[in-house]
Amino acid sequence: MVIFPTHSDSAPSTPIGVVLYTPEIPPNTGNIARTCAATGTKLHLIEPLGFKLSDRHLKRAGLDYWDAVDLTCHRDWQTFLDQTQPQRIICFSAHAQVSYRNFCYQPGDWLLFGSETQGLPLEIRENHPQVVIPTYTTVRSLNLAVSVGIGLYEALGQLKALQ
User: Fold this and answer.
1) For 110-160, how does the pLDDT look when each residue is reduced to its tens digit (9 = 90+)?
2) 2 in a domain, yes or no?
3) Element (H, E) at 56
4) Which range of residues forms the domain containing residue 88?
5) Which of 29, 66, 106, 114 is most enclosed, with most CB atoms within 10 A?
6) Could you tell me if 111 and 15 are in contact, meaning their C-beta atoms sit under 8 angstroms apart?
7) Cβ distance 55 to 77 under 8 Å?
8) Does residue 124 contact residue 91 with C-beta atoms inside 8 Å?
9) 3 within a domain of the structure (yes/no)
10) What radius of gyration, in Å, describes the C-alpha atoms of the chain?
11) Which of 103, 108, 72 is nearest to 88 (CA)?
């Protein structure tokens, strides 16, 4: 089910999609929505969400760009798979061994990010390629919105979608 109006036909559409698996923090999702609006990237949310889509912090983080977000919400992982039939899903995970920079992205890829506190379940990660955004200190991982920005722009850069 589409939550917000889809972006206009005149907006560019990228060959990559972003999926958030059970996101918990409204400002993160709002910032990610804004990044997706800026790049013409489809955004899919997998429930349960840790907030209501009417949350004021979610709306504020997305500013006035919500009309430009092509956003779909799915009641669970299987519903997402059934409705989108993705070609390939790339899991961003702190458990991965391959750097996001050393991965070869392809048109039709879906970049999958887990919740802020739980990440992605093993049963999802083990069935798809995994990449990591390395940290260089004892910090376990980066903020979700930052991670999506880094991963999305790397994939788009490789595909030369934003020139």
Assistant:
1) 999 999 999 999 999 999 999 999 999 998 889 999 999 999 999 999 998
2) no
3) helix 56-62
4) 17-159
5) 29
6) no
7) no
8) yes
9) no
10) 15
11) 108
